[in-house]
Amino acid sequence: MKARDDDLRVWAIVAATVRPLPGRAAPPPPTAMAARARAGAASAPKPRAGRPAPPTLPAPIEPGRYRRMALGREAIGARIDLHGLSQAGAQAALAAFVEDACARGLRGVLVITGKGLLGDGVLRRRVPEWLAEPPLRSLVAGISEAHRRHGGSGALYVALKRRGPR
């Protein structure tokens, strides 16, 4: 592994130029770090056979598109407010909303989840997971936290994929 040897050599040079803060230990030598990394990779927990792996969340919206949506230069085609809905109700409403928005040819929508009591609401956590599951996964191009003027951390911009030829 040539790249790993080069990385270790560079790390050794960097570590030799660093002075630890008072009361702190010096960084470990590169060979000890490599051994620790190999041991950590070997002992990583393996997913259980009976439990499905969590869905991969959609990618964030491209920075340019995010900026256009935040500044109002790219229209937010529709909005849905999920406040006060149960998880099941919110999931059904979200699915119907995204499918309808995609069928209408909208490119970006706003999903208002709210923040929850302590800033860690259930809907705020679950909406990205729902958007990553079929059938919505094939419709969503990306998601990002909304700009403050559109709800900030209590709302999400959802970029939708273009409809293909039918």
The count of DSSP E runs of length 2 or more, i.e. the number of strands, is: 4
End-to-end C-alpha gap? 49 Å
Report Rg. 22 Å
Q: Could you give a short account of the major beta sheet?
A: 4 strands, mixed
Please provide the ordered H/E string of secondary-structure elements. HHHEHEHEE
How does the overall form come out from the CA principal axes? elongated
- The fraction of residues assigned to DSSP E strands is 5-15%
CATH topology description of the largest domain:
Ribosomal Protein S8, Chain: A, domain 1
Poorly predicted sequence stretches spanning 5 or more consecutive residues: none
Helicity, in percent? 25-40%
Number of domains: 2
| SS class | alpha+beta
In DSSP terms (H or I, runs of 4 or more residues), the helix count works out at: 5
Mean pLDDT: 83
Query: From the 3D coordinates, which CATH architecture of the largest domain would you assign?
Result: 2-Layer Sandwich
Structure description:
- There is one protein chain.
- This protein is of the alpha+beta class.
- The chain is built from five helices and four strands; from the N terminus they run αααβαβαββ.
- It is elongated.
- It folds into two domains: 2-42, no CATH class; 63-160, 2-Layer Sandwich (Ribosomal Protein S8, Chain: A, domain 1).
